[in-house]
Amino acid sequence: MQLQLNRRSGVPLYRQLAGELREQIVSGTLAEGYRLPPERELAARLEVNRTTVLQAYQQLKDEALIASKVGKGTFVLPRNDSTDGPAAPRPRQTVPSALAAEPTVIRPPWSVLFSDYSNRFTYHDIAAANRAQNGKAIIDFATGSPNPADIPDDLLRAVSLEAFSSHEFDGQPESPIEGFPELRELLAEHMRARGVHCNARNVMVLSGSEQGIDLCVRAFINPGDCVLVEQSTFFPALQSFRSADARIVGVPMDEYGMRTDLLEGYCARFHPKFIYTIPTFQNPTGSTMPAARRKELIDVARKYQCLIIEDDAYGELWYGRPDAGRGGNAKRPVPLKGMENAGYVMYLSTFSKTVTSGLRTGWIVADPHVINRLAALRRMVDQHTSTSSQRICLELLKEGRIAEHVKTLTIAYRKRRDTAVAALEQYARDGMSWNVPEGGYYIWVTLPEGVRSLDVLDRCRTKGVTFMPGSVFDVDETDDSHIRLNIVHPDAGDIERGIRMICESVG
Amino acid sequence: MQLQLNRRSGVPLYRQLAGELREQIVSGTLAEGYRLPPERELAARLEVNRTTVLQAYQQLKDEALIASKVGKGTFVLPRNDSTDGPAAPRPRQTVPSALAAEPTVIRPPWSVLFSDYSNRFTYHDIAAANRAQNGKAIIDFATGSPNPADIPDDLLRAVSLEAFSSHEFDGQPESPIEGFPELRELLAEHMRARGVHCNARNVMVLSGSEQGIDLCVRAFINPGDCVLVEQSTFFPALQSFRSADARIVGVPMDEYGMRTDLLEGYCARFHPKFIYTIPTFQNPTGSTMPAARRKELIDVARKYQCLIIEDDAYGELWYGRPDAGRGGNAKRPVPLKGMENAGYVMYLSTFSKTVTSGLRTGWIVADPHVINRLAALRRMVDQHTSTSSQRICLELLKEGRIAEHVKTLTIAYRKRRDTAVAALEQYARDGMSWNVPEGGYYIWVTLPEGVRSLDVLDRCRTKGVTFMPGSVFDVDETDDSHIRLNIVHPDAGDIERGIRMICESVG
């Protein structure tokens, strides 16, 4: 097995390694059943960190190219995806069609055909890998979605039946690209209640808030353009920037989010096209930017004529006033979009975190210049958000039904946070620390010095508990001293036990 | 007004002109209320065809940058979209916030910030321009959607209520990226009935078939890559290829679609990454490729290792056996995907043309290599098609309900075609000719020599009837001798009168 890594390349070593291995597997150089070298051995041979090999192998496992068998090693899987053949069994003797009689037809040379854009894309799905873990029950702090029990089944059924039995809704007609006017109006009203001055023409309904990131990338990013992000951030956004060949630069963070005191230096040096930020209940760190930082961020962005994408997926989920004696905001944080009115901020949010991701409905609030451009681009993407989803969201927003559900949710989430923090206080090993989030899904845990998140994850998976390692969110993919716990995903009764198991796995 | 056009550039002159004018309007060089020169005068001054100026002005009208007032000329519109201000009236005397006190804040320099990708995008919405025409009733052969009366309201209501009252469907859960397995299975079965050997893992549910084009462009096109298309084709696909900076080359057509006898020459010369084709009931020409051409297309594509995107949006809508004595296929045409099994063909279809575009649900049938890559890319776009839309489509496919609806539809469409053809036979001017489609939406009319489609359209709009001019679909945007009639959009009772009015407008 020949492998060449380029240490001067900007591409992380683990991705280079995964790429080399992938190429050799896809091309058949490494045949089905080939046993890959053990991680330590390959790491020694290549003179790289063992984590690099671990991550590369994990990547290929997620792509179903290789698999590990306990005690036996890691093997190249059969190419069960290389045929496009009929579902029915193939006839043994006869040749049924002219095509089957041409054994010389060469299959498409996929690796040559795929674009640079799509080759730059790598697909982390550690959450899926976690779920698939041996098929046994697992306490899952990894997946970024709510506990299924918190999805409001009855509410969704009621509003759906209401929407679909109505004759106003006959034929599920085509929607304007920007969304149905009534829904845009209700979303604008919803945003005004959050302190954002806007009206319907500032709002476009999206097929999830990630579509907003994707459309903004298409609308604004030329190859080589710089995007500033929080050093640890939502990794599909990084994927999106990376695929467009943007230069991604991470701004350091502390417990209050992005270090805006450093921002002017970054802007002066890198002249970013935009800053992507999650200022409220950040993913993955759970941090919330105080008002003074928000103002500083806006001032710097304006000065450098740099746009801001404010991702507010979690902003609705404020747990409420902090208990006496505890720090924290006594009021729900006002979005950046509510503090800026010249058009620099493009605000994104979604119903995925408050209702269900199955709705695939989010929205953007932005200057009409942006709305118009995104609508033009979207004409050739999905045209508009599913009419049925829009209609369900319209019913949800009417008469405050969603606000009521969010209230129930945040009361439960606050309890979950308190349970998780209490468990951490009880079981944490020396040197561990964590934030106490004021809303959203995530607790960000710092491991003791010298303890690596991927090692802890390995041990935890064996025990039946998972989380997301910090490297997944890190711009440079090097952070191995943090773990993200999504406290709203596991069953509430499992939180304490899960955290105890994680703390025990720390060493 | 200074204007410079570059005749050597590959960019059509009308787009250069629109771009120059847009820049001057957006930058304020041409102020609100500025009166643009009359079309003839500007055409003479620039030494271009009048059509070029007409098209450029139309483009800017569609973008709401300019407007014509009857008898007064064409004017720059006020910039009513440049503010992002509050919906409430602004206070007159007091300055309510620190931000409002900073009159020095410069608005984002939008034209500098937008990407090359999005600037390459131009937005034709002639159909919308047609609909907006003076607000008066119009016989609309332009819009590419079915007559609202043909959307099966009762069926949609029944299946929706069935789906949403079911407890199987509680909480509208997240879907796998590729779609719910049951729906993929039903779609595979549906495709097998069309003669395409495939199974569920060859199928991905899409948010409309255009999303499939967009994802394939991302997956395969590097800037400068060549895409072969029919000389007249679905224009959003052209937009998608253009935005990715592909080199688009049109292959000549005749009444049987793409001239596959020329294809090898094109492949040898341009080495296309893929061929985009609508072989069945083509948009806009209504033509259908015979089996021999299909085979030739596949053979050439394989030889040059070039992929094929088969867009089959209309393939379901076969009108049935031709009447005795008339030419045409006695059987429903088999898709290219059914004639090729090495993976070169990527097949796209949709429920938009058979049920309603509001569902935003289509599908792709392709090699698992393609499905996997598209799924990875889609992870950062819209993740999956709306759960409610998928569920409705699942119910529609079950128990042959959709097949039944399509049967009703095609009987009605065949009658519409016969009415339209009879009207053409009765009213056509000398030198006009047209195809007789075997399915789908479109009749393609060739105008007498020297008659220009845009002139006819101008006259028709005054009379209250519209269609799409051929230039919209033409790769080079120069075709001015054809018009596309969507015979399924106007009310059936208006077809004869509409066609008579069009024929009268021919001169």
Nutshell version of this structure?
Two copies of one chain form a homodimer. Chain A is an alpha/beta fold and 507 residues long.
What oligomeric state is this?
homodimer
What is the radius of gyration of chain A computed over CA atoms, rounded to a whole number of angstroms? 24 Å
The CATH architecture classification of the largest domain in chain A is 3-Layer(aba) Sandwich
Total of DSSP H or I helical runs spanning 4+ residues of chain A: 17
Poorly predicted parts of chain A: 81-103
Number of domains of chain A: 3
At the first level of CATH, the class of the largest domain in chain A is: Alpha Beta
Instruction: Name the chain pair whose interface involves the most residues.
Output: A-B, 103 and 102 residues
Indicate the overall shape of chain A.
Answer: globular
Sequence of strands across the biggest β-sheet of chain A: 5-13-12-11-10-6-7
Family (chains A, B): Belongs to the class-I pyridoxal-phosphate-dependent aminotransferase family. In the C-terminal section; belongs to the class-I pyridoxal-phosphate-dependent aminotransferase family.
Organism (chains A, B): Bifidobacterium felsineum
Keywords (chains A, B): Aminotransferase, DNA-binding, Pyridoxal phosphate, Transcription, Transcription regulation, Transferase
Cofactor (chains A, B): pyridoxal 5'-phosphate
Would you write up a description of this structure?
2 copies of one chain form a homodimer. Chain A is of the alpha/beta class. Chain A has helices at 13-26, 39-46, 50-62, 110-113, 116-119, 126-131, 153-165, 181-193, 209-220, 235-243, 263-270, 291-303, 368-378, 387-397, 401-427, 453-463, 495-506; strands at residues 35-36, 66-69, 73-76, 139-140, 203-206, 226-230, 247-251, 253-254, 257-258, 274-277, 307-311, 345-350, 362-365, 433-434, 442-446, 465-466, 468-469, 482-486. The longest helix of chain A is centred in the last third of the chain and has 27 residues, at 401-427. Chain A is globular and about 60 Å long. The model of chain A is unreliable at 81-103 (pLDDT under 50). At the A-B interface, α5, α7, α9, α10 and α13 of A face α5, α7, α9, α10 and α13 of B.
